[in-house]
Amino acid sequence: MKQLVEGFAQQLRDAMDIGEKATVTFSGPKYNNVVISGMGGSGIGGNIIQSYVADKVSVPVIVNKGYTVPAFVGPDTLFIASSFSGNTEETLAAVRAAMRSDASVCFVTSGGELLRIAQENSMPYIAIPGESQQPRACLGYSLVQMLYLLHHAELLDDTFKTEVRQSINLLEELSGSIKVQASALANAFHNKLPMLYVSDAMEPVAVRFQQQISQNAKQLSHVNVFPEMSHNEIEGWQHPENLYAQAAVLLIKTSYDHPRVRLRMDLTKKVFERKAQDVLEMEARGATFLEQAFHLIHMFDWVSVYLAELNNVDPNTIDNIDNLKGELSKK
Q: Residue 331 and residue 328: Cα distance in Å, rounded?
């Protein structure tokens, strides 16, 4: 896993090359909505894209995580299915439902049943490398290809290409300092309950971090979002005392935070400091949304790997997930 995290900037570069070489055409009408369907490491990219395109794409973009699709899905829907293996059962069920609704379905996958469906039905797809067998370590491949699909569907201009290239340069430039910061965060989270707080603009990045802590470090964490949490969860910072004594809070800040959200964070920090063992802050680097998102993603991936080492666990294995899938396959 450490080698895969190390290669994230190169993965983004390779993903750009794949996207540029992809020959994808859409013959359908102009789309009135976009649905991105995927689970886990293959699906979180859809959430990041949803945030990224909120002020760029003029039609609704939603993320679908489950077996069914919304009732509005139909002929004017661009339905993007993302599954690293191509065999994710929830995504396959959603794809079949979207096909029955005559949506325009396209795919990002390394193979499996989704690739078969795409090829047999002459549907647009972009194939990504599957050698690593680690979907959560291939976010760069899937996310970038979904951006290319939106571009080929004439919903997104090509500005994202410049932003991804700038992100690659930033990650390479900050490689050393990212590891140093990540190691310090991992030590702060060791034997603690990480409490991750972020603005609504970057919520998917914090959720991705939570997923990586779970899968790589085999450790629980908690995520909530400003400003919503200041209307409810802040009141919960009273009991039980022994739980908060083991909490390590991280406030994740970016230049995309609303000024009033920043104020809420600063005021709420005082509540955290009265209860939690550690209260930390991190500021995203970069000039654009994608630069800041990729900076945080790469940093947090390193945190999860270093935390796995501190927890003396193998970040490559996901025994509970594999066991669950095995039991489901028997039913």
A: 5
